[in-house]
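Design review, sub-item: ligand-bound model
Attendees: FS, YL, KQ
YL presented the inputs for the zinc ion complex:
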Amino acid sequence: MHIDIKTGCRLREETSDCLVAGFHEGAVLSGALKELDEALEHPIREAIALGDFKGQAGQFLLLTARGRLKSKRLLVIGLGPRKEWKLQSFRNAIGRVESKLEAYSIPQASIWVESLMGPLAPGDAVAAAAESAHLAAYRFDKYSPDDRFKPAPKKLTLLFVKKHPLERLKDGIGRGSAIGQAVNEARNLISEPSSYLTPERLAQYARGVARAQGMKAEVWDFATLRRKGFRTLAAVGQGSKNPPCFIMLEYCPARLKREAPIVVVGKGITFDSGGISIKPAEGMEKMKYDMSGAAAVLGTLSACAQLSVPQRVVGLIPTAENMPGGASYKPGDVIKTFSGKTVEVNNTDAEGRLILADALAYAKGYKPRFVVDLATLTGACSIVIGPLGMLAMGNDEGLVKKIQASGERTGERVWPLPLWDEYLDFMKSDIAALKNAGGREAASITGGIFLKQFVDYPWVHLDIASTAWLEKPTAVMKKGARGVGIRLLVDLISHLEVR
Ligand code: BES
Ligand code: MN
Ligand code: ZN
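KQ shared the predicted structure:
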């Protein structure tokens, strides 16, 4: 989708397929919108008077201009009460505009940004608009019949009545578009069936991202990671015909080569059948999205590079397919992790923490400033918090707070759970240092406490199991892969002090 900007506009003179303006619930019709209404002979005033249109979020009026404006149509979009305006209401409004354009097959629109943006600075408003527009236009149609989706609009023009210097606004569009596109690429990866997106394909894709952005990439194949002592990653992957591997990426602006990096780690299970502790058939097809953490890591590095963020960032992705078979790892197996700690496997379906254990222990070698891991780790995550947020657990309260602040800014909300030492009792094994599954009680936390045994640096674990896949569409996103975590991490990394 193409997005451009115009400032110092006269709305009546704007030629477009559809002019778009926002209207707050309970507001009085005034200013430029009132002028448009007058030009059209008062359809908005009348709809308000009849009670057909109140300006509630989700309501809209699509009016034909009948030659009375230079544009063919006017779309008035409800914004909810003015005093409840939030950045998220703006994002949602852009998402809803996009779905209306799609529903009515309108290929282009000119959006009067000032009528929607509340108190936002214009640069931030166009960034949010561009990001949301890209996210809303996304569909995974690679395998769909041609008539499944109506085409998304091809072009959006962001209009300002006031004059603004274009430089800032163009930067904002660049930023929003880069992030939106990185998220959409992650959504493509996540949506791919696991027969296509094997660990090796994921590695190939990562190499491609690195090449495109001038980043370093290294991949250890099955033989190498066994030689290096990544025994838990090897164990989880050994039952599949598609061998596991370990992917490392590094984005580093030249002058930061000696800085301690930020390390992001993503769970890359390309399919989670549960292994020998096999999952029920119902819903198992969803387990192709068990690599959403890995997709978030790739998207984050790619966006950081594209935006030239002044930080050194390392991405680590342990990736495997968790399958039952004659060569699979089994309940009762004891594995010595990369860290040297032994783990008794009491459930092969608790595979995510096993592959992360090796990656987190390995991360120590980077002497990281801090580490964040993202993983679709536990089904219990959905029970605890549902699709509205991700769970954070860690050993550094300040870092959790920073991540939460990024969550509030980006709309990718994060909420903390405790990692009290006593939870480690749930993971006691009779024969090894730890077992890998702690049972039903506090299941998301026991996943976190397991991971904590493998870190000795500031660290936060994000359980994204409840947010990775949307079962119901939101105002901005269709159902399916969400590409969660990228906006959050790019915001976090962009807000860090430069050392
Ligand atoms: N990938 C799953 C978690 C998951 C479930 C993500 C549903 C998204 C939706 C993970 O590997 C898993 O199977 N976890 C187990 C852990 C248990 C055996 C301790 C779970 O949550 O049931
Ligand atoms: Mn599992
Ligand atoms: Zn899993």
